[in-house]
Amino acid sequence: LVASLEQVDETYIMVKPDGVQRGLVGEIISRFEKKGFKLTGLKLFQCPQDLAEEHYKDLKGKSFFPKLIEYIVSGPVVCMAWEGVGVVAAARKLIGATNPLQAEPGTIRGDLAVQTGRNVVHGSDSPENGKREIGRLALLASFTLCDGYFSS
Ligand code: RTP
């Protein structure tokens, strides 16, 4: 009964081009699997410019925006949907602070990165954005979900 009252959310996790190029995809997937979250979608693809700009549109006015878009489209990314109770906030904790030098050891960025502009992974910042980001991928990149294959 308690479990049924808990909200199951979904989050969008993207291994950025540096993470793919450095061979960190398995390591990153493994951290979410070991934590106990459920993988419901996975796709390796080259992110088009317009999708990258839409994904980061809230940062459009920032000085680093052009470099950020250039980085995101510089090579393939791995897009994933992960499901679970509290998954959005927990994923942000597993990922660590935006600046990898400030990210705690034990987090993905804290263990695997040094530069803000090469911080290996993205995670949605709210359940609403998780749904929105996954929905956008479904629409623009034929990203489909496979849920219901086991109950957690
Ligand atoms: P993300 O959206 O990628 O998960 O990252 P975040 O929430 O931790 O950080 P956010 O402020 O949303 O920034 C998005 C991404 O932009 C790049 N960035 N560069 N040069 C800079 O000062 C700077 N600041 C942010 C990073 O790749 C960051 O993850």
From TrEMBL:
Query: Where do the TM regions start and end?
Result: none
**GO molecular function term, any single one:** ATP binding
An example GO biological process term is: response to hydrogen peroxide
Q: Which residues form the Nucleoside diphosphate kinase-like domain?
A: 8-147
Which catalysed reactions does the entry list for this protein?
Answer: a 2'-deoxyribonucleoside 5'-diphosphate + ATP = a 2'-deoxyribonucleoside 5'-triphosphate + ADP; a ribonucleoside 5'-diphosphate + ATP = a ribonucleoside 5'-triphosphate + ADP
UniProt entry keywords in alphabetical sequence: ATP-binding, Kinase, Nucleotide-binding, Transferase
UniProt-listed Enzyme Commission number(s): 2.7.4.6
Q: Give the active-site positions.
A: H122
Q: What class of enzyme is it?
A: transferase
Q: Where on the tree of life does the source sit, at the highest rank?
A: Eukaryota
| Chain positions recorded as ATP binding sites | K16, F64, R92, T98, R109, N119
Cofactor(s) needed by this chain: Mg(2+)
Q: What family does this chain come from, according to its entry?
A: Belongs to the NDK family.
Protein name, please? Nucleoside diphosphate kinase
**Location of this fragment in the whole protein:** 75 to 226 of 226
